[in-house]
Amino acid sequence: MSTWANLGLQDSASPLMEQLIFFHDHALLILVMITVLVGYLMFMLFFNSYINRFLLHGQLIEMIWTILPAIILLFIALPSLRLLYLLDEINEPSVTLKSIGHQWYWSYEYSDFNNIEFDSYMIPTNELAIDGFRLLDVDNRVVLPMNSQIRILVTAADVIHSWTIPALGVKVDGTPGRLNQTNFFINRPGLFYGQCSEICGANHSFMPIVIESVPVNYFIKW
Ligand code: CUA
After folding, report:
1. Are 106 and 215 within one domain?
2. Where exactly are the transmembrane stretches of this chain (predicted)?
3. Is 194 in the pocket of ligand 1 (CB under 6 A)?
């Protein structure tokens, strides 16, 4: 989870989030190079002494500074598309979790695992345990097996919500009347925190998500 002064991304807990971090760093590097180059050129313009009186056009440089940005954009667009399709790929999921957004809590259904159904509410600050996380801990966690492909179906019962877990690289909108699908693979045990990321009403900040990632044999006994 994110703690004080963490302005970057959280440590990844899934292979897809790892790829998202690599892509973020790659895009940021290109951005920094462009900013430095353009910043340098703009700074040097202040010292222009207008010595080329008969300079009216430059075909070659115009060609270069038109085509070059297009090529640079390709270096961002192609890895971005690769990731986009990778995120959408579903590879034989072993568990399917359905999460339904409500004002203001999540309810979960494990339709192919003992037909478990439960609601998951935020623990109010005055009822919080001494080691609990304010506005982040819930009464019933989502227990999921690690090292398995998990499919998640997201929908909502009233308004649009968004099921978002930064460490897993998952953000899916829950829209009333629709069923959205994505998948993830948790590669370590632990607790992963998330929040609703779609402005859904007055208590939008108070519908967190907690995933409890456990080894598969623990999950089967659960
Ligand atoms: Cu549900 Cu914001």
Report:
1. yes
2. 27-51, 63-87
3. no
